[in-house]
């Protein structure tokens, strides 16, 4: 890694102020990586602009000096999209974190890119509204990063992805110009919806500096059901039965091994004594007595069919929260085994066959490894986690996993699925992009990047190589 | 207009078959225009491909012979997006109209681009599902055209635009290649979502040949409320009161003049004796007795505040349909006055001030004209219709209207609104695009078109000039 030259540092300081350029080892390490730990952080410098104008000045400087920029939010990503490992300048949006222009009629609010997800959630709650995109990292992820990665999470089945809540956004392009896209309108069919292109582009088209986010009416009193399910096909039957009768707020699943791990390490109770291959967690709005009667009638039906072997319904908010922990704590619980994660999807109907094929490959390839399955099965999205045996050196584990990834992605391709359902591509999945996107699609993406970023300074090397 | 050369006709016939190339005056007229009547139809020929392969062959031929292509659906558009007035070859998708691969678990279905909206609605209904995008032209508009224009309509407040129901689409690009975008996945964060770019691009990026459409659980028993409202600001208060308490299926408005016209010409009854400046039409799901009690309590509240002067609630399906006609029949009713239409939007909260400013301009400019207001006020989208006085010649009427359009669009620009909320840009709004989109945005759109259509053969001259 080259150290930043005095000239470059001085020019960066002229853009954002003396104290807003960081080059100490701690800052470079902190701002140069995300939740992945595969690529060592190696940025040239970290800058903390305080305004849109400062971001534009930084981009113009980067053009002059041929500096690569990495836009940086909460860095909670799981694919290396915000990693700076090649002497880039990290542009951290932390200081552009104001919430302004709350509009109760449109139910929108303007957020600086650096607004933390939980900050927006709390802002909404104080106004008896609701920001429904929620996931484990909501305490540190930022709105700009959520948009750049089109973050998903545990409420997608009911409320969609981050994309669905972006009413407008401002982007500083690779030429330093400012695009103000859609401006909070519900309806705007005046030309291409460029906003949609920026959502999920992982910072490769420019730096998101501001967004107008939509808020929702808060859900009423929620009930959580955890069901023991006979097999994967039955999980899908239960989903279909509930979904045809009522709006589900969530439909998650996890395997017996996931449950065992989370119970053993988080001090939680099993929901019931019955042991089953899989468990489904459903959340429904307890709108009226009739709604809960319907939820219970569906449970009876699923039990009669032999799909469901046991179940429990939350009777209080505290019990609902305790049941949610069985699912939500899995990721943290298994992190001690530094799992190799795949975040894959197919259409919902094909999930049972898809999982059976992947399980066969994985069990053959890793007879000695523990495999933990969980995920957003109501969206066709499963997380495949291979746990590292304690005795196995990390490098050898990574090596064996990446070999098997190819076989897994061949199955994903055969099922016309996605190699990254919600985590994005970043650096970690770049080599596998062609399993989900055709050569023509990848070529078009490259050309679109050139339109927004002709000098190739915006998060270069992420998603695809130039 | 030049007639097609024998060589070109012979080459077109080689692509799609002898009987599938039409050049008679009736066909050229029928397939060369949409619901606008501003530009005379003047296509070179009309072709009716029966497969994706035939569409690709046509595009390759167009590249060789430098033919411009106009993709053509039901041609119910209101902005001239599907008009062929410059010797183009119309590629009508009528024959690619199969519905296949119904997937009850994902609630998706694969539609040829030529599937008529009502055909999809009926298909869904037969399976106890629901295709929620609905508008006046559903009996002849086609799915491919709906996607190309991101069609909206009367259920947007609850169910969104066509964009929200496209789970995947296939596009033949301007180079004759086939893109298969998103393939029905709920979650797919593997690179740019090119599907979103195609939705609303009005055929300028290629020809949509197939789409995977999502279906919904059907709404339960619906109740319709029509309310007499004191003024425009009160309309917004009523919207806010209802929307903060319940999910609205629709929230439409129309003016007293609109009501008078529709009652006089459609043989309908006024909903009540009270005369008010505006009327709001609300649709709510009659989920339970509690829901209707809430709807009535909100009505009482709005009446106490002086916002609502009178109201009626449907007591039967027949009465609900009769109330809907007061709103839905407006467009057809006023068509006898060949209205000059503007389809504009701003954020919802700004609608009262926005309408007041536009009304002042329009009333000053057209003291002798009747102005009919109606639209999807719950989305911030209003239709401004200027009726032609019987005595005024058409050319003079068009001339006076287009002068005033400039003043209207200056207000739209000041309110950061859209010059085309749902009808698209096509030919009719092209000259006004810069009131809603910046020069940089328009430049980016042009460059993106070049990526998909380097030879410029796909619906050239629509939205913007090359």
TrEMBL record, chains A, B:
InterPro entries from the xrefs? FAD-bd_oxidored_4_C, FAD-bd_PCMH, FAD-bd_PCMH-like_sf, FAD-bd_PCMH_sub1, FAD-bd_PCMH_sub2, FAD-linked_Oxase-like_C, FAD-oxidored/transferase_4, Oxid_FAD_bind_N
Quaternary structure, from the entry: Homodimer.
Q: Which cofactor does it need?
A: FAD
Query: What region holds the FAD-binding PCMH-type domain?
Result: 39-218
Task: Return the EC number.
Answer: 1.1.99.39
Originating species: Kineobactrum salinum
Pfam families given for it?
Answer: FAD-oxidase_C (PF02913), FAD_binding_4 (PF01565)
| Gene Ontology terms describing biological process | respiratory electron transport chain
Q: What is this protein called?
A: D-2-hydroxyglutarate dehydrogenase
Keyword Flavoprotein recorded: yes
Q: Name one GO molecular function term.
A: metal ion binding
Determine if Metal-binding is one of this entry's keywords: yes
Similarity comment: family membership? Belongs to the FAD-binding oxidoreductase/transferase type 4 family.
Enzyme superclass (EC): oxidoreductase
Q: Which UniProt keywords apply?
A: FAD, Flavoprotein, Metal-binding, Oxidoreductase, Zinc
């Amino acid at each position: 890694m080259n150290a930043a030259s005095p000239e470059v540092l001085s020019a960066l300081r002229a853009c954002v102020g003396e104290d807003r350029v960081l080059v100490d080892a701690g800052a470079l390490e902190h701002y140069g990586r995300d939740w992945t730990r595969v690529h060592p952080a190696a940025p040239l410098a970290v800058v903390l602009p305080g305004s849109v104008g400062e971001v534009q000045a930084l981009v113009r400087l980067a053009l002059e000096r041929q500096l690569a920029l990495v836009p940086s939010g909460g860095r909670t990503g799981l694919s290396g999209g915000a990693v700076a490992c090649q002497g880039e300048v990290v542009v951290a949006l932390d200081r552009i974190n104001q919430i302004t222009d709350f509009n109760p009629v449109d139910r929108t609010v303007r957020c600086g890119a650096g607004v933390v997800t939980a900050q927006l959630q709390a802002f909404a709650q104080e106004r008896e509204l609701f920001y429904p995109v929620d996931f484990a990292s909501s305490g540190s992820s930022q709105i700009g990063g959520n948009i750049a990665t089109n973050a998903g999470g545990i409420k997608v089945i009911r409320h969609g992805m981050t994309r669905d809540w972006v009413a407008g956004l401002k982007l500083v392009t690779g030429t330093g110009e400012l695009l103000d896209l859609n401006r909070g309108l519900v309806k705007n069919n005046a030309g291409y919806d460029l906003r949609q292109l920026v959502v999920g582009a992982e910072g490769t088209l420019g730096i998101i500096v501001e967004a107008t986010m939509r808020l929702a009416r808060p859900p009423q009193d929620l009930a959580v059901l955890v069901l023991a399910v006979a097999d994967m096909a039955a999980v899908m039957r239960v989903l279909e039965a509930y979904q045809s009768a009522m709006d589900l707020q969530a439909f998650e699943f996890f395997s017996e091994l996931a449950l065992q791990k989370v119970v053993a390490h988080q001090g939680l109770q099993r929901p019931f004594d019955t042991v089953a291959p899989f468990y489904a967690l459903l959340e429904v709005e307890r709108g009226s007595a009739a709604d809960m009667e319907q939820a219970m009638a569906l449970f009876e039906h699923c039990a009669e069919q032999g799909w469901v072997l046991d179940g429990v319904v939350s009777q209080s908010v505290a019990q609902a929260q305790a049941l949610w922990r069985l699912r939500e704590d899995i990721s943290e619980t298994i992190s001690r085994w530094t799992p190799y994660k795949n975040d894959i999807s197919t259409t919902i109907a094909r999930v049972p066959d898809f999982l059976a094929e992947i399980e066969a490959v994985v069990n053959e390839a890793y007879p000695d490894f523990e495999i933990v399955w969980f995920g957003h099965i109501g969206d066709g999205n499963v997380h495949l986690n291979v746990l590292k045996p304690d005795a196995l050196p990390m490098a050898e584990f990574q090596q064996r996993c990446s070999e098997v990834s190819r076989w897994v992605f061949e199955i994903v391709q055969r099922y016309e699925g996605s190699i990254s359902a919600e985590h994005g591509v970043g650096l970690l999945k770049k080599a596998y992009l062609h399993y989900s996107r055709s050569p023509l699609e990848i070529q078009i993406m490259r050309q679109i990047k050139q339109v927004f970023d002709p000098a190739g300074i915006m998060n270069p090397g992420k998603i695809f190589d130039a």
